[in-house]
Amino acid sequence: AALLSPPIDESGLASTPLFTEPFLLACPADHRLAQAGRISATDLAGPDLLLLDEGNCLRDQALAACETTSAGRHATSLETLRSMVAAGGGYTLLPRLAARAEPEAGDLVVCRPLGGGDDQPGRTVALVWRASDPRSGDFAELARFFRDHAPDGTRRVT
User: Fold this and answer.
1) pLDDT in tens, 26-72
2) How far is CA 125 from CA 11, 17, 80, 93, in A?
3) Can you give the pLDDT at residue 108?
4) Radius of gyration of the chain (CA)
5) What are phi and psi of 29, to 5 degrees?
6) Of the residues 58, 93, 119, 157, which has the maximum number of CB atoms within 10 A of its CB?
């Protein structure tokens, strides 16, 4: 079994959603968005938007959340994106679980929520396994456990 973010294009797999993980804006501490009021994901479309390389599902999810089809520069990993943001190269969207829970002293990156309440853009995390696996009942029980113990900052799927 694996924890993945749908859509999953493989036949022969079974999946069940667990929780929704909101995206956070990661921007330089001195950026105008670091101090802005309510931020909408659609406010982020533009050349300063940094995303992962093409073919990465997180890139596609972030583009959809920002209601745009393109971004400025791109990177191969979340850590590279974080470094680009810290260097003042733009801003990005990070999944909540990839953001630091508490900023460290001197941290150059600020993470801010988008939207508010239930309208926060994000992605679903699901438990996925081979549909032919005889342990499907065990995986369903594991999924219930994950749902009941969804990480802080996420929204449990019911």
Assistant:
1) 999 888 888 888 888 778 888 889 999 887 888 888 888 888 887 78
2) 18, 6, 22, 16
3) 85
4) 17
5) -60, -25
6) 93
